[in-house]
Amino acid sequence: MKPLRAILRCVILMLLVSLGISIASAFSYNWYLEKNFVPNGENCDYAKGIPLDKMDRKKLITRYDDVIFQALSVSKSEVVKLDKPLNLYQEPDEDTEVAMILPAGEYFLSRNSCDFGQGCRSLPTYKKGWRYFIPPMQLVESDGKGNEERKNFSDWYYIKLEDLERLQAKYVLQQLNRLFELWIERDPTNYTFSRLVKYHDFTILFPFHPSYIKNIMGSVELLAIDRIMFENGDYLSPDLFRPLWDWKCTALSIGIVLFLIPERLLARRENRKSALSTI
Asked: Cα(139)–Cα(118) distance, rounded to whole angstroms?
């Protein structure tokens, strides 16, 4: 029993350390943001607290737009499917009336397929967890015969960041699946391990290579503009701050409890045995 209990204790200790590191890293990152944000002294609309619907968007585009938008060059491979409608608002408040329901369908989400403010290129707001954006371009059937066209939206709305994050995660998985399918079509069995070692041909691993995953994640980076604003000293977006307690902390806590229960039961059994042996 004692070796098993020792193993359980080691696992619990590792989980506790991981939990502490997770909380400490979030705290230190948030402290870093606050300490290193230096307002540039310019009259930025965000620094003035101007409502987002009254900001000079041309000025924002000039300052923060780093992507040349070319709608005609967008590939259908960049489409992500929205399974459930999303609620859009005129205020960053879920209790207010829904201003628009974004219907389920296929949308162009990546940075290359979104103009400034569209989709993943949304703007930060003054309230954590909310973004200000134009709905992304939608792919719709035009004539009932299978022909498709691209529908653009023009009005700005507030959307919950978690809704955009779900779309982002789905896009990333979709792109990785597409890479994996291409990898299978290329017949990776022809690329042996000896070839990888001898010729350093890492293309055999390309669906799982960090650079490919990084490029996919970067194409739908939701807080890119927030980081530029931070570096320029224009605005410290509340969305840049990490929560001290997130799903990883919850998962680690559940793991601690699951391993602690059998450890305590074993300890109680050992105590009973030692008590009986002394009688």
From this structure: 15
